[in-house]
Every structure is written in structure tokens, then in C-alpha cells.
Write a structure and sequence with these properties.
single chain, about 400 residues, D-Maltodextrin-Binding Protein, domain 2, 6-stranded mixed β-sheet, 5-stranded mixed β-sheet, globular, cytoplasm, Bifunctional chorismate mutase/prephenate dehydratase, CM_II_prokaryot, EC 5.4.99.5, amino-acid biosynthesis
Length: about 400
């Protein structure tokens, strides 16, 4: 349809037809992704084939330019999303085979911090929505209550924020992991989009009190420093802050939170993009009472905690073990050991499958040279990195 004499209604009708065709094609492609996963079981090939993905993108870009006059950025953006979806679908399929008891549970009881609309609540819906699981949502007032709800059996999973690209590690959660009996079974990285939310369309100068969780206060410190005469009040979560503003229903109070969550409380966005960093992400971990089996064909992470002796070079010795076996460390966090002054516990995230030979050898050596060592979990890497495109 290229004739400019078509009416707007006719053009929209054709657009609707094309959109339906796209949905059908995407559905067929998803189904084939599962068939790919089935074939990889027989050959034991890994889910990701970077060389094949790169060749696919290069071919698509070349065809898009020459045949359809589509630019490379447009094509790349669309197919990065399609490839990510395909990878996650295949991982979920293989994980269901490795953990058949979980695939028979379409219902998940999930504990998280705050009320509806909190960032932990949004992360819960995103993570379990990918797995087509119906949720029973259990909101909690603090992180300790979140973990206790799972430990007691009242919830199957807990979703906990562990680190943020702007404000860093969430120490309270790390300290809880030191003592919990729970295992890390998954992870999720979510974009965090902080806004100023109020009951009505007020000016920033009218705000006298601003409610939020301490983390957003920290992540938006540069913007907040420019507000004059504003008192910062801390709440258990961003959702509790939004609920507080809704209940007060005053023109001089506001909250920091997510714009879509604010709509749940009837709040309007007064100012968007207030975080110190425009690329603001929070990594969440999912914990449960039992560990999961991770398919060897899936990229995996292993998280462990360890304490070393107080002798000079003891931590370096432990890290050299990982280097010797070619295990990449993505996170090293130290926290004090409660009740043991001046002693520290180290949390280590590793890009390695727990059952791999290098990881097992490394654990054997680490056990002999550390004072304490515990594996907190081995879990699939859900953050699918975009394929690099190398054009000639």
C-alpha cells in the first residue's frame, strides 16, 4: 500500500493487518526456538552460539539495507530482543527438564519488600512472568521478614535487591545471606527509573517533604541537593512512600518511585529521570529453601561466601585459586562477621557452573585454605548480553 490517496482509516486497517502478521510470525519463531533447544539436548550443545548469532545479525543487516531500506540500528535493536527471548525460552525449557518438580508447579508464593508497586514487586512479576507462573504475592515490611517468610515455608521464593549501579551494594541483604539457610536460585537485572510523584500537578518548589526508601534517596542525591527546604523522610520501600503520599493527600508532599507504580496510587509524575546515573539498574536475586539443578548447557553463576585467615596475603591466595582454574569473578564484596570484631566475610560471584571440573577443583582447594566456605547457590545467568556485530 503506497498510494497516498488511501484514507487514514484504510492505512490504519492495513497497519493492524501487518501487526497481526508480525505476531503470528513471532509466535512461530518462538515455537521453533523450543525445537532448537530439543535438538541441543541430543548434541549437548550450549544454548548460546555467539558465532551463529553474529552471522545471523550480519546477514539480516545486509538484507535489510539492500532489500528493504532498513537501517542497521533498527534491525539490530529488534533482533537483539528476539535473540534474548529465544535464549531465555531455551534456558527455561532445559531448566524444566533438569528440575521436573518445579515445572509441575504453575503457582509460586513470592515474598518481597514493600507493597504493590515497589521495585521488588515489579521485579517479582517480571521474573516469574517469564516463567509463566501464577503468583501469590506476599509483601513484607523489611528484608529480614522477606527471608523468614521463605525459611518458614510460608513462601516458595523471595526476591531481594542485592546491588545497584548507582548506590552500590545493599549491605543489609548481604548480611542476611551470611546466616540464612536459603539458596540463590536465580537473578534478574532491572532498570530503575526514579521520578518525583505527587497527588496533583504541583511545582517542585511547593514540596516540603519527600518520602522514599533510603536507596533512592542515595541514588538521586545530586538532584535532591538542588531542592531547597525539603525534608527527606525514609520509608520501608518506595511503594510505602507512594502509599503515604496518597493517604496524606497534601500539596506539599511527594514521593520518589516508579511512574507506572505511581499510577497504582493515583499519583502524577512531577519530574522524571532524577537518578544520578541515567543508566540505573538494580540486580535482584531469587532465593528458595532448596537449590536448583542447572543444565550444563546453560551459562551459570555460582555464588559463595568465605572467610580467610587474618594472615597477610590470605585473600590473595584464595583469589589466585580462581585465576589458576580460569574462573572469572564478577563480584567481590566484604562484610564484617557479626560477633567477631575485625573479621570479614567475603561474598564472591563467579561465572562458572558448580558441577564443572574447574569449579569443583577450585572449591576443593579453597576449602583447604579458608576458615569457612559455603556455596550460596548455582543459578542460570538470566542477563543475556547482546551479540556483538562485526561488519566488514
Amino acid at each position: 500500500m503506497t498510494d497516498s490517496n488511501y484514507s487514514l482509516d484504510e492505512i490504519r486497517l492495513r497497519l493492524n493487518e501487518l501487526d497481526d502478521n508480525l505476531l503470528q510470525i513471532l509466535s512461530e519463531r518462538r515455537a521453533l526456538s523450543i525445537e532448537v533447544a530439543k535438538s541441543k539436548i541430543e548434541t549437548s550443545k550450549p544454548v548460546r552460539d555467539s558465532e551463529r548469532e553474529q552471522q545471523l545479525l550480519v546477514k539480516l543487516i545486509e538484507n535489510g539495507k539492500s532489500k528493504y531500506q532498513l537501517d542497521a540500528q533498527y534491525i539490530t535493536k529488534i533482533f537483539h530482543t528476539i535473540i534474548e527471548d529465544s535464549v531465555l525460552l531455551q534456558q527455561a525449557y532445559l531448566q524444566n527438564l533438569a528440575n521436573p518438580e518445579l515445572s509441575r508447579k504453575p503457582l509460586a508464593r513470592v515474598a518481597y519488600l514493600g507493597s504493590k508497586g515497589s521495585y521488588s514487586h515489579l521485579a517479582s512479576r517480571e521474573y516469574f512472568g517469564r516463567k509463566n507462573m501464577e503468583l501469590v504475592e506476599l509483601n513484607c515490611d523489611n528484608f529480614k521478614e522477606v527471608t523468614k517468610t521463605v525459611e518458614s515455608g510460608h513462601a516458595d521464593y523471595a526476591v531481594l535487591p542485592i546491588e545497584n549501579t548507582s548506590s552500590g551494594s545493599i549491605n543489609e541483604v548481604y548480611d542476611l545471606l551470611q546466616h540464612t539457610t536459603l539458596y540463590i536460585v536465580g537473578e534478574l537485572t532491572q532498570p530503575i527509573e526514579h521520578c518525583i510523584l505527587a497527588n496533583s500537578d504541583i511545582r517542585l518548589e511547593e514540596i516540603k517533604t519527600l518520602y522514599s526508601h533510603p536507596q533512592p534517596h542515595q541514588q538521586c542525591s545530586e538532584f535532591l541537593s538542588r531542592l531547597k527546604g525539603v525534608t527527606l523522610e525514609s520509608c520501608a520501600s518506595t511503594a510505602d512512600a507512594m502509599q503515604k503520599v496518597e493517604e496524606l493527600n497534601r500539596p506539599d508532599v511527594a514521593a520518589i518511585g516508579n511512574a507506572s507504580s505511581g499510577k497504582l496510587y493515583g499519583l502524577q509524575t512531577i519530574q522524571s529521570n532524577i537518578a544520578n546515573q541515567t543508566e540505573n539498574y538494580t540486580r535482584f536475586i531469587i532465593v528458595a529453601r532448596k537449590p536448583v539443578e542447572v543444565s550444563s548447557q546453560i551459562p551459570a553463576k555460582t555464588t559463595l561466601i568465605m572467610s580467610t585467615s587474618q594472615e597477610a596475603g590470605s585473600l590473595v591466595e584464595a583469589l589466585q585459586v580462581l585465576q589458576r582454574y580460569g574462573i572469572n569473578m564478577t563480584k567481590l564484596e566484604n562484610r564484617p562477621i557479626m560477633g567477631n570484631p575485625w573479621e570479614e566475610m567475603f561474598y564472591v560471584d563467579l561465572e562458572a557452573h558448580l558441577n564443572s571440573e574447574p569449579m569443583q577443583k577450585a572449591l576443593s582447594e579453597l576449602t583447604s585454605i579458608t576458615r569457612h566456605l559455603k556455596v550460596l547457590g548455582c543459578y542460570p545467568v538470566d542477563n543475556v548480553q547482546p551479540t556483538e556485530v562485526k561488519m566488514d
